[in-house]
Structure formats: structure tokens, C-alpha cells
Design goal:
Elements: H1 9-12, H2 25-61, H3 69-93, H4 99-125, H5 130-149, H6 157-177, H7 182-201, H8 203-208, H9 220-271
């Protein structure tokens, strides 16, 4: 008679349900809390960049550099084109930047674009752009405070909707209560909405950033990189809109010139 088969470890093992590998509710909550805090840090970096832009936009409004309006306009136009090229370059390199470089690049870029946009806005509308930057920074500060106090994800649809609502409310308040011009109120609302749309577009990218950097336990570097990507995208869109407007104006001027030439030719023929 053959001996009875001996039990093996496989036969003694209990069937697994796969639940052992799933994170517990406490672990899920800890991950969600960490993500929420990180996204608030990204908002804080965006607020810092907006404040830097406002500080640089203010002095540029009163600057005597390039006092000739024609030369000044041409110089700013060329500089804004360079700003767009820099934005494209930074956008392709931002993921590979060390954290300290990303922080310095964000603040430097915010200052340069604040100076240029402030100068251009002053030449066109004869008013300062700095208050617009400050108000948008306050709006994002409100969104960050809401996320921190109520423990909400600042990139959730509810939070983003709140940001748009705050943008509309602040634009109306600045217009009716503080005498802001219509263009300033519109810039506050559309600037806020555009930034929120960019944040929404990069939501998954932002959530993955903390795992991209070593030796960054507080996620300062990752938050700065995320804010830099959002700010660069904002500048790219604004510059494209500005250049599209310039192109439209140039085409209109060209059409007006051709119409004037036709009218002059008709007058000469009539005189003959």
C-alpha cells in the first residue's frame, strides 16, 4: 500500500480574498489628507507668484524707461515675444528642474511678466495692473483658506466653482465699491477663471508631483514646480491672446489704409 500523501504548506494555506493588499480606511484618509495639504501648498506658491507680479507691475507703471511711446511699445512687444519663448522652454524643462531652480524660476518669471504686462497695460489703458494681481491673489488665498479650514480638496469641482464665484463677487465689489474700471473688473474675473481652469486641467499632474522628488519631505520643491507649470501656462495663453489682438488690429489698419487708397484713387479719377 502506498503511504498517504503528506500535507504541504500549499494545502494548509487558507484561501486569500485579496483584501489583505488593500489599504485600510485610515491609510486612505491619510493619503487624502496629504494630497489636500500638498495642493494647498501649490496654491500658496501661486499666491506668492501673483504678489511678486503685482509688486513688479506697480513700479513699471511709473517707469521713465523708454519714454518714447513708439519705442516703448515696440520694445515691450518684443520682450513679450521673448517671454512666450521662455515660457515654452520652461514648460518643457520644468519636470527636470531641481526644486531650488524651480522656486527661483517661478519668482523671477513672475517678476518679469509682471513688469512687462504692467508696462503694456499702463500704455494701453493708462492705469495700473498691480491691483488686479493683488485681488486675484486674495481670491486664491480665500480658496486655500477654505480648503484648509473645511478640509476640502482645493482642486475639487466644488472648490473650483467657489473660486469662480469669488472671482465674480470680487470683480463686482471692486467695480462698484472701489471704483475699478470695467477692464480691471473683467481682468479680475477672467484671470481668476483662467487660472482655475488651468489648475483643473493639471489636477492629475499636480497629484503625482510629490512622488517625483526625493529628499523633499515637506513637498516645497514639488509645490513650486506645480505652481511654475500653472503660471507658465497662464502666461502662454495671455501672450497668445495679446498677439492675436495685435494681429487683428494690424489687419484692420491695413484694411483701412487700402480703403483710403481706393477713395483717393476715385477722387483723382473724378477730378479728371
Amino acid at each position: 500500500m502506498d503511504p498517504a500523501p503528506q500535507p504541504t504548506a500549499a494545502s494548509n494555506s487558507q484561501p486569500t480574498t485579496g483584501l489583505e493588499d488593500q489599504p485600510s480606511s485610515a491609510e486612505i484618509q491619510a493619503i487624502e489628507t496629504a494630497d489636500r495639504k500638498f495642493l494647498i501648498k501649490v496654491f500658496l506658491w501661486i499666491i506668492g507668484a501673483l504678489v511678486v507680479s503685482a509688486l513688479f507691475a506697480g513700479p513699471s507703471d511709473q517707469s521713465s524707461l523708454l519714454a518714447n511711446p513708439v519705442l516703448s511699445y515696440q520694445a515691450v512687444s518684443l520682450a513679450i515675444g521673448g517671454l512666450l519663448l521662455a515660457a515654452v522652454f520652461i514648460s518643457h524643462k520644468v519636470d527636470k528642474m531641481p526644486g531650488s531652480v524651480a522656486m527661483a524660476t517661478l519668482l523671477a518669471y513672475a517678476g518679469v511678466q509682471g513688469w512687462l504686462f504692467g508696462r503694456l497695460f499702463q500704455m494701453v489703458y493708462r492705469t495700473s495692473l498691480a491691483p488686479v494681481y493683488f485681488v486675484i491673489a486674495v481670491i486664491f488665498g480665500g480658496c486655500a483658506a477654505y480648503g484648509w479650514y473645511f478640509e476640502r480638496d482645493v482642486t475639487s469641482w466644488r472648490s473650483l466653482g467657489l473660486g469662480c464665484g469669488l472671482g465674480a463677487a470680487m470683480a463686482s465689489l471692486m467695480r462698484l465699491g472701489f471704483g475699478f474700471s470695467i477692464i480691471e473688473a473683467l481682468l479680475i474675473f477672467f484671470g481668476t477663471a483662467l487660472l482655475i481652469a488651468i489648475v483643473s486641467y493639471h489636477r492629475d499632474y499636480l497629484r503625482d508631483l510629490p512622488d517625483s522628488f526625493e529628499n523633499d519631505p515637506q513637498w516645497h520643491k514639488a509645490a513650486a514646480v506645480g505652481a511654475l507649470q500653472i503660471y507658465v501656462d497662464l502666461v502662454v495663453i495671455v501672450v497668445v491672446v495679446i498677439q492675436a489682438r495685435w494681429l487683428t488690429e494690424a489687419m484692420d489698419e491695413s484694411q483701412k489704409a487700402r480703403n483710403e487708397e481706393r477713395k483717393a484713387a476715385r477722387r483723382r479719377l473724378s477730378a479728371v
